[in-house]
Each structure stands twice: as structure tokens, then as C-alpha cells.
Amino acid sequence: MNSKPKIVVLGAGYAGLKTTKELTKLFTPEEADIILVNKHNYHYESTWLHEVAAGTINPNQARFMISDVINPNRVRLIYDLVEKVDTENQRVVLENGELTYDYLVFALGFETNTFGIKGMAENAFSIVDIESSRLIREHIELKFAQYNNNPESKESDLTILVGGAGFTGIEFVGELAERVPQLCKKYDIDRRKVRIINVEAMPSILPMFDKDLVEYAKKSLADRGVEFRLGTAINECTEDSFIVGDDNEEIKAGTIVWTGGVTGSSVLGESGFELTRGKVTVNSDLRAPGFDNVFVLGDCAWVMDEEAGRPFPPTAQAAMQHADICARNVKSLVHGGPLEDFVFHDRGTVASLGVTDGIGSVFDGKPLKGKAAAAMKKVVDNRSVFLLGGTKTLLKKGKFRPF
Ligand code: FAD
Ligand code: NAD
Question: Where does the record place the FAD/NAD(P)-binding domain (predicted)?
Fold first, then answer.
């Protein structure tokens, strides 16, 4: 190894961007070269993508330029697609080149998991990044714009079908409940013709919340026109429908969005890492087993919650906490010193139900609902922009509109 180590960070999401920021604080330019690779020249707030997809915020609000928050004179920024990591030769293969590393931070985030459901990958939209979310927004708007202009229009063209009532599905239908009345007004369509249907295999939505909060969320969304089909498994997705339940009922729609699950970046598999459900079961110091110089963070990491006997859910909150530990551990590896174990500090969870409503459990389990939860969600969203982008970015992109 050279006297000056080369630290390569893959991905400028919550985990990768925060790690890079922390590394620039922990190392002087003389001590280490830091390189950040990301497929776009911008970071996006994945946690706002349901709003982009529904059209309740502008896609540009959910992203900011990486070079605005990371000094390119300090960190080498490479905008390229990571295809594979060759761990044997400490080499990263990019679409347009390659680079070597002494220390690697793998933080390429999540991809959609369709669990092999027939037709789902081919026919349904997914909320994964800015582009896929913007496509959903445009598709929905096109369906509304076409409705009164095409003699062959069917009422089901105005149906929006959402598969999965986890956090993403529920937050998305909450935004749709806000957006649909605006679109009806814009395109002279009777609101009663539009259906938002959320299909979920389990008997309940968001099982991690108290029953009272779940009932509140269901009623709030149902009052605003969201129809739930709970305890109904989706067996297949066709071009214009879901096939659901034991009797293979067909539900037709003009827009179909799958929010039924996520997994880690497929680059992990391409690179030969051993996987647990698409992720790397990391050691307690967040290193990949068998590799002293490779950290795996965020949604690519399977981090066990030993107390609960299951992995921690993949969240932005956890990804940013991984980043802090990882940066300090890289410093210990370079300078010598003990590595820290990752300990998750749970700051609570909030799910939005549209712009002005939500449910949450914060401050050691205190339940929140309604406007208080929606306000808390905006605080959380703004905090993340501040931590990654600083005050200037927060003032440009933050959510400050009163409601
Ligand atoms: P990501 O944020 O996915 O970042 C990965 C980065 O890597 C991206 O910049 C991507 O462009 C880049 N990349 C990917 N593949 C490649 C490649 N091959 N080459 C180069 N670059 C690549 N969590 C919460 O804690 N709170 C919430 O309120 C919340 N809301 C959410 C709402 C939605 C709609 C969704 C989908 C998720 C939400 N989550 C929330 C979960 C959270 O977004 C993820 O856990 C988090 O994004 C994981 O961070 P990450 O850094 O691992 O990956
Ligand atoms: P998820 O795995 O949490 O939920 C997917 C849902 O789809 C589940 O309820 C599952 O039962 C359902 N489903 C799966 N297969 C199905 C089928 N064949 N038919 C019908 N329903 C089916 O996925 P998600 O909502 O995308 O969330 C991913 C992660 O991101 C979670 O860990 C979550 O913690 C995090 N997240 C957090 C927030 C927040 O904190 N506000 C928001 C969004 C996502």
C-alpha cells in the first residue's frame, strides 16, 4: 500500500454521502485520498420519492448537486455506474473505467424486490430513484390528460393500483389522496371516477405501529378515497391489472405501482459477496466477513438486532448512523486503534399520510398522529438535508411551507 491510502466510497445516498463528509473531517488531504463514485452528479432524498412519484413535490426539490456539498478539490468525484467490485484485486469496475482502492465503502442502496411475482418487474412501476419516480408522476398525469380526449377511455384508466401497504405504499397513497383532487380539477374529471386501491397480503397495514395508530391511518386514508384490499396477495401483474387472492380476481388499472419490498444493490451479487436475502450480513464493525478493508452500509447491509432476533429495518436513519461508525473505523484502520461496534440509536419512526397528516412513534415510543406527526416528519426530512447538505442546501430544498 502507498503511504497515502486510497479510500473509495460507492454511492452518494445517505450512507455514502455522510461517510464521505465524515471522512473529510477525520483525514487531512495529506493523510488520505478520498474518492466518491455515484451514477448521477446529484444526491436525492430517497425518503421523499413517494412525493415525487405522486407529484406533490417537484423532483428538483428532492435532489441537490453533490459538488455543492462536497468540495471537489478535496474529494475526487466520479459520476459513473458501478458494475462490479473485484475484491481479489481491490478494483472497482465502472461502466466507463475502473479504479483501485485500499479501503472500500460499499453503499449503493436498494433495488426493488418483486419476489419473482409473474409480470411484476415488466409491468409495474417502482419508486426507486428520481427517474423512476418522475416517470410515475408523468404517467399518472398522462392518464388524466388523455381521459377526456380519447373516445375509447375506460374508467379503469383512472384507477391507480398500489401493491404493498408497507411504509412506501402507505406514504405513496397518502400523497395520491392529495394529488388526485388537484388532477381532477386540472383535467375536468369527476373525482368519483378515480380509484386509488392499495392491495396488501397481510391482514393489516404498518404492523409495527400501535393498533390505534393503524386504525387512525386507515380511516384517514379511506376518508380521502383510498380503498384497501387487505389480506389479499398479489399473484400476478399484467399490463393493466393485478391478479389477486385465492380466486385470482382481476383488478384493472391505468397505473400500477409495486411497493411490495426492497433488497440490496445487485452489484453485491455481481461482486461475489455472500448474501442473505440480497444483502451482506456485516460484522459488528460493519465490515464484510472475510474482508478487512471493505465496509458495507445502508440498505446493502444486513445488520442484526440481536435483542429482537431479526435485522434492523433498512432506513435512512440507520444508513446515516452506519456512516458515522464506518468513517471512524476507517480512520482506526489507517492510523491503528480499536474498531467500534455499530449500535443503533432509535430516534423513532414517522409515516406521512399526505402533506398534513401522519402517524408516528417518537421519543421512546410516544405515539403521534395528525398534524403533529406531519410536522415531525418535516422536521426529520429537514434534519437529513441539513446533515448531508448543510444550511445553504436546507434553505434551498427544505420543507418549510406552513399547513
Ligand atoms: P440510497 O439512499 O438508495 O443511495 C444509494 C446511492 O447509490 C444513490 O445515490 C444511487 O444513485 C447510487 N447508486 C446505486 N446503484 C449505483 C451504481 N450501480 N453505480 C453508481 N451509483 C449507484 N427511511 C427512513 O429512515 N425514514 C423515512 O421516512 C423513509 N422514507 C422512505 C420513503 C420511500 C419512498 C422509500 C423508497 C424509502 C424510504 N426510507 C426511509 C428508506 C430509505 O430511503 C433507505 O433506507 C435509504 O435510502 C438507504 O440509504 P443508502 O445510502 O443505503 O442508499
Ligand atoms: P416493506 O417490505 O416494508 O413493505 C412491503 C409490503 O408489501 C409488506 O406489507 C408486504 O406484506 C407487502 N407485500 C409483499 N408481497 C406482497 C404480495 N405478493 N401481495 C400483496 N402484498 C405484498 O417495503 P417498503 O414499504 O418499500 O419499505 C422498505 C423499507 O424502507 C422498510 O424497511 C421501511 O422501514 C423503510 N421505509 C421507511 C419509511 C419511513 O420511515 N417513513 C418510509 C418508506 C420506507
Answer: 6-323
